[in-house]
Each structure stands twice: as C-alpha cells, then as structure tokens.
Amino acid sequence: MNNSVIINRLATGVPGLDDVLGGGLPEFSFNLLAGPPGCGKTTLAHQLMFTLATPQRPAIYFTVLGEPPLKMLRYQQQFDFFDDAAINRSIRFVSLTDDMLAGGLKQVLRRIVAEVETHNPGLVFVDSFRSVMLASAPERKTFLNLQHFVQQLGMLMTGWQATTFLIGEYFNEAEANPVFTIADGLIWLRQSVQRNSMVRKMEIMKMRGQSTLPGLHTFRIDGAGIQVFAPARIVVGSSAAAGTSERLQMGVPRLDDMLGGGLPRGYSLLVAGPSGSGKSILAAAFLAEGARCGETGVMAAFEKLPNRAYTPILAELIDSGRVALVNNRAPDLSIDEIMLLLVQEIRRLRATRVVIDSLSGFELALAPTFRPDFRENLSRMIAALAVERVTVLMTSELEDRYTDLRFSPYGTAFMTDAIIVQRYIEVDSRLLRMLAVVKVRASAHSDELRLFSINDDGIQISGMLADQEGLLGGRPTRKKPS
Predict the structure, then answer these.
(1) Which pLDDT does position 49 carry in this prediction?
(2) Most CB within 10 Å of its CB: which of 43, 97, 122, 279?
(3) Alpha-carbon gap, residue 250 to 461, rounded angstroms
(4) Rounded to whole angstroms, what are the CA distances from 345 to 56, 275, 297, 364, 424?
(5) Is the dihedral of CA 50, 334, 306, 412 positive or negative?
(6) What strands, in cross-sheet order, belong to the sheet with 123-127?
(7) Which pairs count as long-range contacts for 4-12, CB under 8 Å and 24+ apart, including other chains?
C-alpha cells in the first residue's frame, strides 16, 4: 500500500521554467532565489508572484533594507506580467526596514508572523533576505543562532502552508550559509559579459522531491519578463530516419537520381561548398519542392535574408506563409534559444522540411560564450530536430583548396545522414562548378562527379567530369584543344 504524500506543483507562468524545474514549483516549499546584482532575481520573484497570486491564494512581499516598494513597482510595472489591479487585492507589500533597525532578527520574525497570521497568505516573498543576515551580524553570537532563525522561519511558513521565496544577493554558491541547507529549493541566477553580449543563465541547484534538468540554462529578460530556454528533450533511438523508405524530391533535376532516388525522409543533409557555389539556391529549391508537394517548411537564415532578387521563389513562399523564417539577430543567442524558435515554427506550421543556412553564420550568431562548444551543441540540435521528424538541410561554407575533400570546418560531417559537396574547377581559364554525393547513410548513391550551372531556373546538373584524376590530384583540369 502506497501512503506517500502527493506534492502539488504550481505552474510558474515563466516560459520554460516548469520544464527546467521538472514539472513546476512544489507547493508549500521554502525556496531561495540567489545571484549577483542585476541578474534578474527581483524580476523573477515578481513574475512568479503576479502569476501565482489570487484572492484565494494571496501574496505578501516583504522588503528589507533594499529598494522601497514604490521604487520597485515603478520599474516592475514596465513588464507585461504586472497587474495594477492585483495590488492590495491579492498582493500586499510590507517594508521591514524599521523592524530590522529597531529589533533585529527577533523583531523581523515577529513582524512576519503578525502579517502572516493577519492576512493568511499562500505566497511569501522576502527581498532581500541577505540584508537581514548582514544587518543581524552584530547580534549573532554563534552560527547556530542564525541557523535557528532560518529554521524557525521555514517551519512557520510550512506550518501555515505558504510557498516561500527568499531573495538574496550571493556571489558564490560555495558560501557557507544555513539557508542553503534548510531551503527546499535553490535557484541560482548568473550573468556574464563577453564582448558585446551579456548572457544570463539559471541553475536549479536543489529542488527537493522532484527531478530537475541539470546544468546551466540560458534565459532572457524582455518586455514580457523572463523566458527560460530549456534544452530540447532527446529520446534515444527516436530518429525518424531509422528504417524509413519514403524519399523526398530535392527540386533539382538529376540530383534525386544521384541520391539514389531522393533524400530519405527524416534525414539530415549537409551541403558543403565554397562561397557562391550554389548552396543557398539548392536549399531554396529543396523548400520550394516541398511546397509544390503540399509540405510546409522552416528556414533559419544566419547570412543573407531571402529576397525577390536573389531567391524569388523562396521569398514568395515566406510571404504566403508556406515557409516560416527564423532570423534572430540578438548578440547573445544560445543553441537552446534557436532550437526553441525552430521547434515553435515547426509545430505551428506542422513543417516537414527545415533549412539552416549556414552553419558558418550560425556559429557567428551565437554569443561568444557558446562558440567553444559549437560542435557539441550542433550535435544536440540535429538529434532534437530528428525527434520533431523533419528532414533537415544544412549548408556549410568551405574554402576551396582544390587539393583536399573536406566537408565541414567543424568536424561534424559524421553527424549527418547525407553529404553533398560542391566545388570549383578550372577549365580553359574558366571557373566551373561541380558536385558529388559523398554519403547517403544506408543507401546506394551515385559516385559521379558532375558539372552543374546556375541560371534563372536554378541549378542545372549536366554530365560527368571527364578527368577525375586531374581534379582530385590537385592539378587544374583543362580541356585539350580540338
């Protein structure tokens, strides 16, 4: 017989936070929101409060030796979550400054008890709790005295069935403090500045009774408040490419034959080549062919935006809503934020084709702090897109050295299911284009090196190269005079 207590979880109203917490915030828990100044602690506390507070579950927000409530509200009312009608109806602000100065910890605790007994709140916030600790230092004879105060406060809040949040400025999570031990939940906020980007991250260091997502999770503060970018869930063995038999048409004559009948649905395809070789045009043809077959697509553009002069068909598809465009130019992007944007558009359109153009621009779009882990993060993104059961085409910029066959500057070619390489060759003092299918996983494909050209109708593939040895051996291929 199972007699375990069921803990109700509260939906926080902060996008992405419930996923990171493992399903929401445990009701009646005793939590600490910690981090350095300016990292978003007060904004997070207010967003939680305005979301969770109701007349049936009112909130009290205590302020201690920090910003006065009127000044705090002046700035918090700039956010979308702020509700002026909730003030003094379901939300009450109380200043503990005079109590702290007059009677220290004992008087602060008495005032908190009096307010809680009078108003019976379901939510209690104390900001900044660290101010209580610092101001009480002269009267604190032993470490146990402070620990006793925190334990009393925690027991009182739990006994009154209040979900409690202590907000404090802490710079080091290794700092010895009794509240770290007594708290049921410990949410640590960080921020770092590199070059022209500032990246904010959140870590759930502790949340009793439930499994949280480990690691640092990026979040952004904008007019709507805080949004947390939880990592996409990856299920082992969930790739749509496994065992597929359906083939997608690429929209380029003869290319489907070179791929062995088209690109298997659910595959990830890498199109690698030097600048101007036609990668973006091939990507546009891939999306246009999908639209012709009644499919929708998503394009993440990190270089040039589609325009009518360069890719008129793709621009028309975007204007008509058959292809969604993801183009975020923020200087502090993370992989998880880009993945969230992609997944939102994929699910909104029920898209089946995705283009990322290009990986080179993608890396530059990321905040500097994420670039050293680009290879690992790209692998996670490909796996997460496989869960969405879409077929992905990625372009990659390569320097054409004539003497080697490289497919990606990131060493990521092994992550993809198929590879098409484009190159330049010199023929009679002219630069011509050629392409080859290097890999199609678990499928027969052509090994031919074929010339192609680009005209108003797109990519046109022609015949095989007559002298493969000259090309791959590093010598320019030249036609003999007739």
Answers:
(1) 96
(2) 279
(3) 13
(4) 37, 28, 9, 22, 35
(5) negative
(6) 91-95, 59-63, 123-127, 163-169, 30-35, 185-194, 197-207, 217-222, 225-228
(7) 7/209, 7/210, 9/210, 10/52, 10/163, 11/51, 12/47, 12/48, 12/51, 12/52
Phi, then psi, of 365 in degrees rounded to 5: -70, -20
| Tokens read off for 174 | 């290794």
The residues that bridge with 92 in the sheet, in sequence order, are 60
Q: What tokens were used for 79?
A: 């956010």
Q: Which residues contact 224 (CB under 8 A, 6 or more apart)?
A: 79, 80, 81
What number of residues does the chain have?
482
Q: What is the 3-state secondary structure (H, E, C) of the chain?
A: CCCCCCCCEECCCCCCHHHHHCCCEECCCEEEEEECCCCCHHHHHHHHHHHHCCCCCCEEEEECCCCCHHHHHHHHCCCCCCCHHHECCCEEEEECHHHHHHHHHHHHHHHHHHHHHHHCCCEEEEECHHHHHHHCHHHCCCHHHHHHHHHHHHHHHHHCCCEEEEEEECCCCCCCCHHHHHCCEEEEEEEEEECCEEEEEEEEEEECCCCCCCCCEEEEEECCEEEECCCCCCCCCCCCCCCCCCEECCCCCCHHHHCCCCEECCCEEEEEECCCCCHHHHHHHHHHHHHHCCCCEEEEECCCCCCCCCCHHHHHHHHCCCEEEECCCCCCECHHHHHHHHHHHHHHHCCCEEEEECHHHHHHHECHHHHHHHHHHHHHHHHHHHHCCCEEEEEEECCCCCCCCCCCCCCCHHHCCEEEEEEEEEECCEEEEEEEEEEECCCCCCCCCEEEEEECCEEEEEEECCCHHHHHCCCCCCCCCC
pTM above 0.85, yes or no: no
Contact 217, 202 (CB under 8 A): yes
What does pLDDT average to in each consecutive run of 10 residues of the chain (482 residues)? 76 95 93 90 95 96 76 87 93 87 79 91 85 53 57 79 87 63 90 80 92 92 94 60 76 96 96 91 96 96 74 89 88 85 96 92 81 83 91 86 52 81 86 92 92 93 67 43 38
Distance between CA atoms of residues 180 and 185, nearest Å: 9
* Selection from 335, 389, 385, 387 nearest residue 362 by Cα: 335
- Token pair recorded at residue 8: 């109700």
